[in-house]
Structures are given as C-alpha cells and as structure tokens.
TrEMBL record:
The keyword Nucleotide-binding belongs to this UniProt entry's keyword annotation: no
Single GO cellular component term: endomembrane system
Keywords for this protein: Membrane, Transmembrane, Transmembrane helix
UniProt domain NADH:quinone oxidoreductase/Mrp antiporter transmembrane: residue ranges: 138-428
Species the sequence originates in: Gilliamella apicola
Record protein name field: NADH-quinone oxidoreductase subunit L
Primary location class: membrane
Length: 615
C-alpha cells in the first residue's frame, strides 16, 4: 500500500507524456503507453488488495493513511495532502482499474485513426487520474481538484472531434452543465467547515454524529447542497444533458465516461458521506423524487429513439437512478452491488453497440438495419444476454435480485409511487432493448455491405458477461463499519419477486407484439393522436433543451444585448461630454482683452474674500 500514490502519478505522467509527444509517436507506441499505464495501475491495485487482505483483522476497520505534504495553510486552516485507503475506496479503485483496463484493451482494437488513438489515451489518462484522486484523498477541498479534473477530461473527450461545430458546442455544454451544480457542492463544503471546523472526511462524520441533531436545519442544507453538487456528475434529471452529449465521442470514450469513471464521482461522494446523509430524511426524500423523474425521463425517451448510441445512452441513464433509489432507502450496501451491476451492464451494452456500429460501417439508425442474426450470431447472443440482465430475468440475472431488493425497499418504506416507477422503468428499459434487438437482428435486411472486426474485440465482452449472472449477486465487499448495512423484513418478498417476474414476461410479450411482427392493428394504435403526441414529445427529449433555451438562454442573450455597451462606459461618456462643454465655454473667455482679464481677477478676488469671511 506504500505505492498507492503511483495509481494517480502513473496516469498523470502518461497524460503529460502523450500530450507533449503523442502527435509525433506511432499509433502502436501510443497504444503501448496507454495500455501499459492502465496495466501498471492494475498491478498496483492487485498488490494493494493483497496487502489490505493480509492486514485486515476480523471485526476491525482497517484504514491506511499515507501523508504526502501540506498543500497550503492560512493561520489555523491547514489543508494536508494525504491518501487514505479503506474498504470503500479499495472497491472503487478495483472497479475503475479493472474496467479501465478492459476499455483500454478494447480501444486498441477498435480505434483506427492516429488522432483518435492519441487523444483518447491522453485524455482518458487524465480522467483516470482525476477519478482516483477523488476516491483516495481524505479532504473535501483536495477532492475538488479531482472533481474539476473530471469535468475537464469530460470536456476534452466529448470534444475530440472539435473541428465539427456540433461536437465543440456539445463539449462546452457539458462543461457548463457540470459546473452549474459545482456551485452547490462548494456551498456544502463551506457549510461543513463553518459548522464543524474541519474538512477531513473522517472527522466530519465523527463530529456530525456527536454534535449535530438528526433532521436539523443545518444537516438538511449541508446534505442538500452536497446532493445537488453530485447530480451533475451522476447525470440525474435535470442535469442529464451532458450524459447525452457523450454520444459524440468515440465509443471507448463513451464507455469510460458513462460506466466506469464520471458517473462514479457523484456516487462515491454520497457513499463516502452516507452516515451524514442518513441524518436527513428530507434530503433522502428529495433524492427519491430526482431518481423517479430520471427513470421516467430516460426510459420513455429510449423507447422511441432510432439512433443506436442514443438508445444505449438513455437506457444507461435510467439504470443510474436505481443507485439513488438504493441511497434513498438507506440500503448503502445494496447500492454498491447495484453499482457493480450497473458498470458491468452499461459497459457491456456500449462495447457490444460499438462492435455493431463498426460492422455496419457506422450506420446508427436502427430503421436502416436488419437481418443480422444469421450474419453475426455471436453478437446477437451478446445482446440477448445483456437484455436478460437489463430486464431482470427471474432467478438468473444478478439485476433481478438487486433491483428487486431496491424496489422492495422502496415499497416497505411507503414509497409506493417511487416503487411503481421503478417497476415501470424496468418494463420500459426492457422494451427498449427488445426493440433494438428485434429491429437490428430479426427484421428484413436493409444493408448488404459490412466491415470486418477483430475477434480480439470480443474478449473484454466475454469477461464482463460472467459478472451479469446471479453468481455475483452479493460480492464480499469490505465495507463493514464504513457504510451502514440495512436489513429488511423479507416476509412477502417472494410475492413481490413473482410480480417482478410478471413485469419481465410482460415486457417480452409487448415487445413481441409491437416489434417482432407488427400488424395493422398495432399500426392503428401507434397512429392514434394521443400516442403520436407522446411519441413526438419523447422523440424530442420532452422538449427539455427547448425549455432550457426559453428559461435560461434567451433571457441571458437578451440581457447580453442590453448590456452590449457597458453602462458605466455610457456614464463615462456623459461625464467626458460635460467636461468638454465646460472646457469649451472657459476657453471662450480667452479673448485677448486686458480689461476682461482685470475684471475677472477682481470678481474672483471678491468671491474668495467672501468665502473666507462667511465660511
């Protein structure tokens, strides 16, 4: 564990090396540097895990701290820079390192352009270094460094094709959206310091438990600000726009941003401060509302999209919400299992979609694809397994138990509406992936030319497929004494599992009727005015960007036009104009007549004398 700092230093140095010299290196050398960086990070992670297991004592909390140096100090306010490793940070370290290695390996066989290879590995190294900074530091102020690094990395990865105006605009949009809620995070950090006089995470949790009352106003405002600061990184509604813009990046970059790095930042912040969030039931209720809105928003839009990338993105966005459902039910241990299931499933879906797009020569419209089941049976099988995981196939997939427990927790905590929306989200997400499979693989063929892909591209997918099965439902995660472990009453849970199974079967029946063999009756239903309005609304993302434009962009442009000329500069112009007028009037007195000068001197002397006498 003494080499822990190398997990941050190695990708950071690799980023600097590739930024400075990457343009002049051969693509194979860039791949070697990038993959070697992730390989070194994984080796250090393995050694750290072995060391952690050897030093763990039963019923004891192992916390390893490595002080580095003092960042700065102002009076009594000292900000030390040190790394801390416990079971929670180790879990995130393993997830990021392992998924990063698989994605880097996939990118080596997927990317072909020299510029894409250089930019992907350079910017991804910065993203990895930033994420590891977030999970390994023990001070909230130092964590903001990694937080900002994640935003910058996301901006760079989305803007890889910056010469296309749409991509440059999307990168700026993502950068702005992420920073909008960072303001709330900074306010939350300030409130914590003002209340507890420390920014050390362990001291915050200890002092908050001892000195602050449950459901007090200050706890509510602190947790609310921290949650609002986390929603942009976790892409919860209404801060999900940047998540959709990631589709403009290369697919390996999409996998890195949507599954194993950026989304984990907000999740880690809430998990790390879970004991603090447990003290505010109001914030947990607000978390439930945001999660429900995200499920409805994302799953309904995914159902009507035609772009493969956008379908995958909105399906992943809907799955993120179940993490926050688990937080809202205070089942923090289950949320970690949900997190592992999410990163595996979302990475699988993105990588499989990447191979599909590669084979179809970049064609992303599912209406122009079809009949691929005979040509690519392995790819079809992969999509079917992913579908089984997303639809929570009963007693086979890990998501059946994980999502089932999360929704069951909502139900027994009287969040019936949220639990119903959670079931609806599973139904709509299942329909979305079924629609993709039927239209791409089982409809009539529409294209004849396909590109070849390397068999080695499938290796990361085959590895990840193992983790979608029910064998890996509850992995032994070393988070005892770090996050609260909730235990629920399991009475009547079997009946709920039967209900969840019925939802899964219902999704298959509806998908078969609507997408496998659509008939005239189905078309009549789809052509009704109400359904057309709903489809049109979902196709344009609930007109969300239009609302943002009306509420924020248009007023800002109006104010900018009003103040195009600086108001202070206008006042300066009036003052200067007045001075010029007075000066021109005084200059006119210089007429060369001595009598006028003498009279002026006498009048001025009298005025001065009167001022001296009467004042």
């Amino acid at each position: 564990m003494n080499l822990l700092y190398l997990t941050i230093i190695t990708p950071l140095l690799s980023f600097l090396l590739l930024v400075c010299l990457g343009r002049h290196l051969r693509p194979i050398n860039v791949m070697i540097i990038g993959f070697s960086t992730m390989l070194i990070t994984n080796l250090i992670t393995i050694f750290t895990c072995i060391d952690f297991i050897k030093n763990t004592v039963p019923d004891m909390l192992l916390v390893y701290t490595r002080p580095l140096w003092t960042w700065f100090s102002v009076g009594d306010f000292v900000v030390p820079l040190s790394l801390t490793l416990d079971g929670l940070s180790l879990t995130f370290l393993v997830i990021i390192a392992f998924l990063g290695l698989l994605i880097y390996f996939f990118a080596a066989s997927y990317l072909t352009s020299k510029k894409d290879i250089y930019t992907f590995y350079a910017y991804s190294n910065l993203l990895i270094a930033s994420m590891l900074t977030i999970i390994l530091v023990d001070n909230l102020l130092v964590m903001l460094i990694g937080w900002e690094g994640v935003s910058i990395s996301t901006y760079l990865l989305i803007g890889i094709y910056y010469k296309q105006l749409r991509n440059g605009y999307a990168a700026v949009k993502a950068f702005v959206i992420m920073h909008l809620t960072d303001i709330f995070l900074i306010i939350g950090v300030f409130l914590l310091y003002q209340t507890l006089n420390t920014l050390n995470i362990r001291e915050i949790l200890t002092q908050a438990h001892d000195n602050l009352a449950i459901d007090s106003d200050i706890i509510f405002w602190i947790t609310l600000m921290l949650f609002l600061g986390a929603i942009s990184k976790s892409a919860l509604f209404p801060m999900q726009s940047w998540f959709v813009e990631t589709t403009l990046a290369p697919m390996p970059a999409v996998a890195l941003m949507q599954s194993s790095t950026v989304v984990l930042a907000g999740v880690y912040l809430i998990l790390r401060l879970s004991n603090l969030f447990m003290m505010s039931s109001d914030t947990l209720a607000i978390m439930t509302i945001f999660s429900s809105l995200t499920v409805l928003f994302a799953s309904s839009i995914a159902l009507v999209q035609s772009d493969v990338k956008r379908i995958v993105t909105y399906i992943n966005l809907a799955q993120i919400s179940y993490l926050f459902y688990a937080f809202a039910t205070q089942n923090w241990g289950l949320s970690l299992n949900c997190l592992i299931n999410y990163v595996v499933t979302s990475t699988l879906l993105i990588l499989a979609s990447a191979i599909l797009l590669k084979k179809c020569q970049g064609e992303r419209d599912i209406n122009k694809l079809g009949g691929l089941v005979k040509l690519f049976p392995v790819l079809n099988a992969i999509f079917l397994i992913i579908m089984l995981s997303l639809s929570a196939i009963p007693w086979i997939s890990a998501s059946f138990y994980i999502k089932g427990d999360i929704i069951w927790g909502l139900m027994i905590k009287d969040h019936l509406m949220a639990g119903t929306i959670g079931l609806l989200g599973i139904l709509l997400s299942s329909l979305s992936i079924w629609r993709l499979i039927f239209m791409v693989f089982y409809h009539k063929p529409k294209i004849a030319e396909f590109a070849k892909t390397k068999w080695i591209s499938y290796c990361p997918i085959f590895i990840l497929l193992i983790f979608t099965t029910a064998i890996f439902i509850y992995l032994p995660i070393p988070v005892q004494s770090i996050i609260p472990i909730a235990k629920y009453d399991t009475n009547s849970q079997l009946s709920f599992q039967l209900l969840l199974s019925a939802v899964t079967i219902l999704s298959f029946v509806i998908a078969y009727i609507f997408y496998a063999h659509p008939n005239s009756e189905v078309q009549e239903v789809l052509n009704t005015p109400v359904v057309k309005i709903i489809i049109r609304l979902c196709s344009c993302d609930w007109r969300f960007d239009y609302l943002l434009s009306i509420i924020f962009v248009k007023p800002y442009q109006h104010l900018a036009n009003m103040f195009k000329k600086d108001p202070l500069a206008i006042w300066d112009n009036w003052i200067m104009l007045g001075i010029k007028k007075i000066n021109s009037y005084i200059v006119s007195f210089e007429n060369g007549h001595i009598r006028w000068y003498m009279v002026s001197i006498v009048i001025g002397s009298i005025i001065i004398l009167m001022l001296l006498v009467f004042i």
